[in-house]
Automatic annotation (TrEMBL):
Residues in NIF system FeS cluster assembly NifU C-terminal domain copies: 17-73
Polar residues: bias regions: 97-106
Pfam families in UniProt: NifU
Molecular function per GO: iron ion binding; iron-sulfur cluster binding
UniProt-listed SUPFAM superfamilies: Fe-S cluster assembly (FSCA) domain-like (SSF117916)
InterPro entries noted in UniProt: FSCA_dom_sf, NIF_FeS_clus_asmbl_NifU_C
Chain segments carrying region Disordered: 77-106
GO biological process, one term: iron-sulfur cluster assembly
This protein's name: NifU domain-containing protein
Organism: Candidatus Halobonum tyrrellensis G22
Amino acid sequence: MNDLAERVEEWMVGQMPIIQNHGGTSVVREADAETGVVVVELGGTCSGCGISNITAQNIKRDLIMDFDEVDDVQVKVPSTGDTGSSTVEGGRGGDLQFSNESADHF
């Protein structure tokens, strides 16, 4: 993993308490300092969540503000609700821990 990808992963870990509190997961799919492109994928209960678009916009804005070399951020939110291992890398996520709250709770 390159330096930018590692730094973006660390940044996302800092965001995870908010995302995980709602049963979501995230993974950095791409972070290229030369092109300035970062691709983040949200999973878990982010899929189909009514506020995932707000979360995505906040991630985009904050990554561009916090990292000088980042010019373009793409946040992907699968609509399938798939929570397979490919969407929970980096030790964040894994099997979803269900609570008494519904996935629509925020």
